[in-house]
Structure formats: C-alpha cells, structure tokens
C-alpha cells in the first residue's frame, strides 16, 4: 500500500543511444559561455566568472515531441547547447578530475522568453519565467562518454526551417567543460542524474509557431523539435 497521498509525478528521463533511459534529477544551465553570444546580448565576455540558472527537470522535451509556443511572450528565442549528463556526484570537484564525473553528452536547446528575460534583468528579478517554463528544454538522445572521443571540440549548429541560425565550435566556450563542472560544484553538490546545459554561441533569434528547429553537434548527435 502506497504512502503517497496523491500519485507521484513521472520521473523525467532521457533516452540513451543503444537503449536504456537516463533518469534526470536537476537541470543546471550556464549563462553567456560563448564570447560572441555575450557580446550580442550587450555584455563583456571577460567581465565575470561563469554563472548559473536552472530549469525544472520536467521542462525536458524528448526528441520528436513538439514544444508549444509559450504564453506571455512575443519574442521566443532558440539557444543550441551541448548538454553534459553527470554520472558520478561530488562537491568542490577539482578541474583536473571533472571529466571523470561525466556519464554522457547530448544536444539540447534552451528555449527562452527573451522579452521576459529583458524585463527580469532590468528589474533585477529572477529568470524563472524567462527560462524555466514548461517545454523549454528540448533534448536529443544521450550518448555515453566512452563513445565521444573529443567532447571538448566539435561543430555546433542550429537550423530553423533549414536556414542556419547558429554555427560555431564547442571549443569556443569561454569556460570549458572541466571548469564549468568544477565551478558549479562549488555552489551545488552534484548528483548522478544532473544535466548541465553549457551555454550557447551567437546567432540566437526568434521563432514562431510551426518553425522546425534542427540542432547538431559533431560527434555527439542532434535534436529536432517543432514549435507547436
């Protein structure tokens, strides 16, 4: 007999290449981790250490599902990102040991209500309404780390209706993966099941209902989502 007074919510999961499911605990995101994107948003890329925000785990949109156009926005943006899945937890992880904590990688899209983000920034308010809304984290299939020989470099691209909007290399990150993991672990104890969206390159722009978003990272995979 269950002790739950209501039915527990489903466990968010990400499919794994070759079979299986990766259970998701938390989603952390890195802000302004590519210099050109920081500049296009009006910021100095050298002025600050990495900073973080979060999305709820149930914001994930699994490959093939639609992401409905969200309410209360008229400026809905795409941000293609490398996603890191944590397999071994820890706190205050040294940079030199950070990659040992990675279970795998995926391609993700951080969808953003840009007008609400601008409003939040102007008023020094939290970003949740701009970043943590329902269906705001499309993600592709997770690839085990052992199958990704060069996770610190590779072409990253996003196309909207076949037109390239974002194109860069993950080697262009201001803070590479070991430093991102190490810095994040100073603020939060990481656990197996955590995902880290590692920032987006330049070229973010608005999408509308019906747009087809196709993202890819060389050597890792792809993600496809339609704005419903």
TrEMBL record:
Transmembrane segments: none annotated. Residues 27-227 form the Fumarylacetoacetase-like C-terminal domain. GO terms for molecular function: acetylpyruvate hydrolase activity; metal ion binding. Pfam families: FAA_hydrolase. Keywords: Hydrolase, Metal-binding. PANTHER family: ACYLPYRUVASE (PTHR11820), FLUTATHIONE S-TRANSFERASE (PTHR11820:SF90). This is Fumarylacetoacetate hydrolase.
